[in-house]
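Hello,

I think I submitted the protoporphyrin IX containing FE job twice by accident. Can you confirm which output corresponds to this input? Input:
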Amino acid sequence: MTHIPGPSGIPVAGNALEITSTFKLMHKLHEWMEKYGEIFKINIFGEEIVVVSGTLTGEMLVTKGIDFAGRPRMPALESLEGNEVHLGLRDYDPKLRFIRKLVHKGLRQYGEGMDKIEAITVTEIAKCLDKIEKLDGADFDPFTYIHHAISQVMNTMVTGEAVPEGHPMLNKAIDWDRLDGEISQDPSLFLPALSSLSPLLGIGKLNDYAGVMEYFIEHWRSYEATYDKENMRGLYDVIYKAYLESETDEEGVKISYNNVKYLMFELYGAGITTTHKSIYAFVHMMVTHPELQKRIQAQIDDVIGSERNPTTADKHKIPLLEATIHETLRYISHVPFALPHETRKDTSLGGFALPNKTQVWPLTSGNHHNPKYFKDPLSFNPDRFLENDGSLSPASSRRMLTPFGAGPRNCIGEVFARTRLFLFTASLLQRFTLLQPTEGKLNVLDPKSEDYLKKIPSVCPNFKIRAIPR
Ligand code: HEM
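Support: Only one job matched these inputs. Its output is below.
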């Protein structure tokens, strides 16, 4: 790949010493994108990684998506899941394709549209808001409140029910998220050539991580005793049934019991950490943009009023809230280069030849913050996604907005996440006005700051607000 441009680096280590933290990695990737353009390569102790942005993102993820649908190995994480990865980090092999089909089926039946699950979700959100109301307008950090509510949404997705109030699952999910954030501060997580040198990926942290994961898995396994194939309760039952009945797809693969356990964990973790961080950032944005908050509340009042809970059917009737969710995901770009991809055969991108097994990262945050695609990208402006009459602009105008990735390895939970984001934010602003705290005024979040970019997914540093019932 000598013809692909990129920073020269030093002998042996290549660019490794320039990216010793996740913040430095992100900072450098954006700097190199500006300098070298839509495709460049970096070198980490001899391992070359190609970084892609701009119009080549579509070529990589969609037009030639199948060529780029592999995943590089991440040995540190593999060792946690029985030396096999099961979904997000798995190569694009027949089993992965089967697993994705099963999960899609389960999400469609038991997550995205089913009234019962939606009703439970809305009830859980309402319980979270009741707790916030009890604070009586005092300063508080919404982190835990949002985390518990999102965990309950995910519990409902997996088992068909929320856990009782105060159940250890809720704080375990926070422990897991904290550990995941700590581990992700070390870029060697994404760079196999460095993983053996890593201090953070040390045995202690990985053991803690494994402990929390096993706790979740034991909790779900307890549902096996009451499994009834005539009464599917949630996604665990759907996947467990496929295992018990040795279901296969046209490629003839079957899933193992290990797959059932660990893929559920991957889904659960992926769903909590990303959705929580987007809602936490949304709340921050509402407090620092009070005029926008008022405009959204006016649309909520018109369409939903105050007498009933929001439903997914309301989503398209509140375009300003939809635009604000799009803008939040663009502005915070908290999954900045999706998950690492790998070529599955000799292929090419933008006219450059790429051999089989090349690691490729789609730098979607680079697109989201590029003035070529989004005018004045570091200003938070949901109106950019609205037409003059206030309706949402057509999806075709948002092609460069890909917070969930695209193509054959896109986020499997996108529809689920978007509906939950809507239900949560609509319920929150229907009931409360979110205000600056009495102490320590919030400034607008800087999505380029070290505090924000030090973990992946990126998360707003902790903050306090007040929530005043309307
Ligand atoms: C705001 C919320 C979310 C965002 C921004 C997000 C973003 C992403 C991104 C960027 C990817 C990688 C795409 C790629 O590699 O090209 C991904 C993959 C994935 N997401 Fe999400 N996600 C969100 C919510 C969820 C939810 C709620 C679930 C589960 C219900 C979920 C499950 C997954 C899984 C399992 C993968 C791996 C798919 C694969 O490798 O084939 N995500 N997500």
